[in-house]
Amino acid sequence: MDESTKQIDLSGKFGKLVLKDNVLAVISDIELTTISSAIYNGGFKKTKALLNVQATNDLTDKQLHANPQKFIADSAKKIDITDNFVGMVTAAAVDKFAFASKKDGDLTVTVAATAVDVDGNTCSHAETAGEPITVEEMLGTINIMVVIDGNPTESCLISTILTATEAKTAAMWELDIRSRYSGDLATGTITDAIIVAKTNRGAPIVYGGPASKLGQLVGYCTRKAVKESIMEANAYL
Q: Is the domain 6-235 a CATH 3.60.70 member?
């Protein structure tokens, strides 16, 4: 990768967090097991690359939603990734990501989150789940990548998605983010996405809820990263 690429080594020495142009990615040296709501290769997958891709200014909302997979695949080539990756797309500025990592014994969790769009707005389409919503465009995404250097079971991995989502909502409530549709405290935005990945190293982990060892790490890192990514907007206001 060239000099314009920024990298952060992940705790556990199995990979890096990479930023280049409109792509924020986790690149692993070992195969990861993932569960995600990603639009590109979502669901359960085995991969060494997790991507969060920012929609570019020349791409209209209509074009993006007509073929997001092609846009993500084309963007992945910028970091020399051409196949077998998991990818999300966002209107948020990926260079304004927030990063949190915490270790407890032989278990480490790392989270990267994005929430600030290129104009400095954040959570512009915040919502409260269950309310009536009329949507004309898809903006304001909070995207989260959770990497667990450990070995949770499949059901535990799914549980960590619930824990991370609760932590995201807690961060939004702490900052008094409100739904643009009702004014209620927001639970997310209309296009949020998440990837949770594990390295499969260590003994199997069964529990990922908020009170478990793993869940506390996931909750702490997710809440911290989401809160900091939202607060990044303050620099523009």
A: yes
